Amino acid sequence: MKNKYILAFLFVMGLSSSCKKFLDTEPTDFYSPVNFYNTADQLQIALNGVYSTMMLERMYGQVHHFNFVSTTDEMLPDRATSNETRGLYYTYDAGHSYVQDCWQYPYIAINNANVLIDNINKPAMDEKQRGYIKGQALFLRAYNYFLLTIQFGEVPLVLHQPGIAEVNIPAASQPAIYTQIVADLKEAETLLQGRTSASLGYNDQVTITAVQAMLARVYLYWAGYPVNDTSKYADAIIYADKVINSGQHALNPDYKQVFINLFQDKYDVKEDILEWGSAGAAAGVTNKTGNDIGNFNGIISAILIVNGTFEPTSYAAAGWVRITKKLFDSYEVEPSSTLVNKASLDTRRDWNCPDYIWTTNASAGTRVKTDRPSPWQMNTGKFRREYAPAEIRNSGTYNANWPVIRYADVLLIKAEAENQVNGPTAAAYDAINQVRRRGYGTMYGNIVKNISVVNGGSGYSATNPPLVTISGGGGSGATATAIVSTGGVVTGIKLTSRGNLTTAGPYFTSAPTVTIAPPATGVTATATATITNGTEYLLTPGLSKTDFQLAIRDERMREMCFEASRKYDLVRWGNFAGDLQAFGNYAAADGVTAGNGNINGYQGLITVTSRYSLMPKPTYELNLNKALKQNPGY
């Protein structure tokens, strides 16, 4: 059940009042604190209203996971520059409407949380429940201030509903903002003791481990640029360890299943510590709402209508961003593979970097899987709408939750902070290797890592390749496709699936048998499979502190790509403009535009400046709040 939030409940200001200052609007169209907050149910309704803000279109429904985070070294947009798409490129200014949204909507949530916190003690009610409501409100206030400070730097710190005369409020320093965020989260940690996603059965409300994971993340950012208070790395370790040692969370053994679950309305309370609940309804319910998860940041596809009826396997996705070759090449490949696109030892590559799009043949009434073999052409594949139920696909209401904090992220925070404080210790290696082990698909056993052609045979059809069967070896679920030359010879075998990576399989104890169907006439091809030995995932031992940090940077890209963290990682690592300029030049030298479509993002990276490490304060806010100063460079 994803529709836990009453969407219409927004105190203080309506969404139509974008031209008004968030700090000086009197409540007129909604309940006011005078006649509300009198019962436990009303407190819960108010809390639901704060939650509902998080997945609005101008929050994580679209803007926060797409518009200002889609031009980095892991993905690039392929849209022509326009006023609408300027948020994708480093060409926006203080007047851009999405810049305004990134400022306004977190403050809407903060203001609603402030009013709730100010009135938390009004009703007579169970004190534990009161604490749970307050703890969640404090988390939501802290989270939105975290969004504001990583995007805008110094911002006004408002902890109570302001009076109408309170207009000119100066920005607080980032250390002051982080101090308040931590204070809110630590109070929430006390209030939410015993509130776990396991006991709730879902993870789109705040729990004790969500608070602790968020504290680990906040301390990691506080330790980095621009505040650079490196003493906070030690605090990041403390709170990452609290989550790790809680016993509440673990990695899903199948990386791709984490993201399939989001579209199938399944709660993975082990891996996903916190999700933002979608602004729609439970799977199977037709409604008029939805979000853009898997649309702009998904695999290109169009809904196919045959004889006036939706073709049930089709779905809509615009696919406005593509992966980078840097991301594709960061995944380790099987050295002995002879394919041009070598088989990857890391199962995350072929999920995140799909080598196809979906086109349609309307006359035949079929969908067509069209190859995109160049990494520069590949869409981002993490969020795949094709896994949503057919009734959701056909109605166009893809109500996937957004993964806010995953257990894998906590492990990588632990590894990075441990390295910063103590160097690449065994604890640091263990944390990163847990993530890598799942990535390599070998949490519980070995998988097929490569299939080599022994004899290419003859007489095969390049347009209708033979069936490849993988059997025996104690496992199951591995599938492959034959690659046939125009001369009718099998030149390679491409692994197309690692199967359903659960504790039941497809893990192998010995190399399975590969069978290639014979041609109508000619010689049958043969091939052999090789399985992993169970140690491929291990990070190179004996790295220096500097090299381990570089390994963390790459691992975060491989694991967390497209989850709206890469830009902010580059900022906190302290060389945002330099890193992106270097990547822009690499992309140009690697032929990003040669036959690869309209990938505009790299051009702006070549000349990007450090001013874009922060967004500009929006023009409308500067005009209203005379005590506010614009960020440098704008």
Automatic annotation (TrEMBL):
Q: Per the record, GO CC terms?
A: cell outer membrane
Q: What SUPFAM superfamilies does this protein map onto?
A: TPR-like
Q: Name where it's found.
A: Cell outer membrane
Q: Where is the RagB/SusD domain?
A: 315-438, 531-634
Which positions carry the signal peptide feature in this UniProt record? Answer: 1-21
Going by the UniProt record, its keywords in alphabetical order are: Cell outer membrane, Membrane, Signal
Q: Is the keyword Cytoplasm assigned to this protein?
A: no
Domain named SusD-like N-terminal is located at: 21-220
Family of the protein in this entry: Belongs to the SusD family.
What protein am I looking at? RagB/SusD family nutrient uptake outer membrane protein
Natural source organism: Pedobacter chinensis
